[in-house]
């Protein structure tokens, strides 16, 4: 088997350590050696560049590309799948080689990537958001109309459920449909029409059932949770990650530390809502302003306490291809550039349960790698990272030369 040698550059290995001079050797789909003075059959000169693990975005929506409620009503049903072809390509082009889709993508999307039908990131799917009636996943409007972002279909069942028995059945339906992870909303949201993000949703027994049923199938639960009550309900029940976490209080932070829950901040998302304000209901815009005002302080509180942080963007709310803006927003909360990059590599891999295969540059791992100009642990490079991407490898195959 031929050996591909990436030589002459530095390696950021994903652990948070500063980049160091090193070569990387790839055989087949694996990294087989990392060090200096290595040899190979074919070489790629990385002088002046840094080799990183493939980045991982723990919270995306591949089936939408920006907020346009009118399109949810007027677009042909199947257009979303062709949209996903474009968003998956855009994601791969900025060095994100794995994602966790937080709603919308179904088994066909995951399999299209896995089988090589379309290029894109390795994808874990949640399919549909589990929500109580009147919650973040309930698209009922005051007019009586129902306007879901993602129309249900046989492979994407509705996620509405009330009470432990309905929650149990719904989790089993989603697992049957191919969900790798269960997503539940334990608070209101921003884009949803009839709720308040500060209010807690679902009771503890409902969330506990979801966690137990997911665990029985070897799956985790991620929780959309903005308000403190919803965060605490989710963490007490055993969810693996809190998505957004905008109104954390001291008790919630302590619970996350004690239970080992991750925070996936998605700092970019509410800013994206404000950018799309002209197309949105004024109530949605008002909620976005409310959460933006508290978001950074909440993430900083979690960071200073030692809560585990994993990179996630909620991209789909914003256009795909902007994901890496989140890295700079994380540094605004107090992470160093190296820590921000670690959140998108080693920590995100741990959250997704794929740390044995992905997340660091070391022998035996899958050769998902990104080559960038300069040192990404310098703030001025990190802030312009997408434009500095020169090569993206997935499973040892060069799949991109950067954004198009």
From TrEMBL:
UniProt signal peptide: none
Alphabetized Gene3D superfamilies for the sequence: Metal-dependent hydrolases, Urease, subunit C, domain 1
Domain Amidohydrolase-related: from-to ranges: 50-384
Keywords from the UniProt entry: Hydrolase
SUPFAM superfamilies: Composite domain of metallo-dependent hydrolases (SSF51338), Metallo-dependent hydrolases (SSF51556)
Hydrolase among keywords: yes
Entry-linked Pfam families: Amidohydro_1
Origin superkingdom: Bacteria
MF (Gene Ontology): hydrolase activity, acting on carbon-nitrogen (but not peptide) bonds
Cited InterPro entries: Amidohydro-rel, Metal-dep_hydrolase_composite, Metal_Hydrolase, Metallo-dep_Hydrolase, OTAase-like
Keyword Membrane: no
Name of this chain's protein: Hydrolase
Organism field: Virgisporangium aurantiacum
């Amino acid at each position: 088997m031929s050996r591909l040698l990436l030589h002459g550059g530095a390696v950021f290995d994903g652990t948070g350590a500063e980049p160091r001079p090193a070569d990387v050797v790839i055989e087949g789909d694996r990294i087989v050696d990392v060090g200096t003075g290595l040899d190979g059959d074919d070489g790629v000169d990385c002088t002046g560049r840094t080799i990183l693990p493939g980045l991982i975005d723990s919270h995306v929506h591949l089936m939408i590309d920006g907020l346009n409620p009118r399109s949810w009503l007027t677009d042909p049903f199947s257009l979303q799948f062709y949209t996903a072809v474009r968003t998956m390509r855009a994601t791969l082009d900025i060095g994100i080689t794995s994602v966790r889709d937080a709603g919308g993508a179904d088994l066909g999307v995951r399999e299209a990537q896995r089988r090589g039908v379309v290029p894109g990131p390795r994808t874990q799917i949640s399919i549909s958001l589990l929500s109580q009636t009147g919650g973040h996943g309930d698209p009922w409007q005051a007019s009586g109309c129902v306007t879901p972002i993602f129309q249900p279909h046989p492979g994407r069942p509705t996620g509405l459920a009330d009470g432990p028995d309905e929650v149990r059945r719904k989790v089993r339906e989603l697992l049957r449909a191919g969900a790798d992870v269960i997503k539940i909303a334990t608070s209101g949201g921003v884009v949803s029409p009839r709720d308040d993000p500060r209010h807690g949703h679902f009771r503890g027994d409902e969330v506990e059932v979801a966690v137990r049923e997911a665990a029985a199938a070897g799956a985790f639960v991620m929780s959309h949770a903005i308000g403190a009550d919803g965060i605490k309900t989710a963490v007490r029940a055993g969810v693996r990650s809190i998505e957004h976490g905008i109104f954390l209080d001291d008790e919630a932070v302590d619970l996350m530390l004690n239970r080992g829950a991750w925070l996936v901040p998605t700092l970019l998302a509410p800013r994206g809502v404000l950018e799309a304000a002209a197309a949105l209901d004024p109530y949605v815009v008002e909620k976005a302003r409310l959460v933006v005002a508290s978001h950074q302080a909440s993430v900083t509180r979690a960071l200073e306490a030692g809560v585990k942080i994993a990179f996630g963007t909620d991209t789909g709310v914003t256009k795909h291809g902007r994901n890496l803006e989140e890295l700079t927003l994380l540094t605004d909360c107090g992470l160093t550039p190296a820590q921000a990059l670690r959140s998108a590599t080693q920590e995100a891999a741990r959250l997704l349960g794929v740390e044995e295969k992905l997340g660091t540059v070391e022998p035996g791992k899958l050769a998902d790698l990104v080559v960038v100009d300069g040192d990404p642990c310098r703030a001025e490079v990190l802030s312009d990272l997408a434009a500095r991407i020169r090569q993206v490898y997935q499973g040892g195959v060069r799949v991109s030369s950067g954004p198009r």
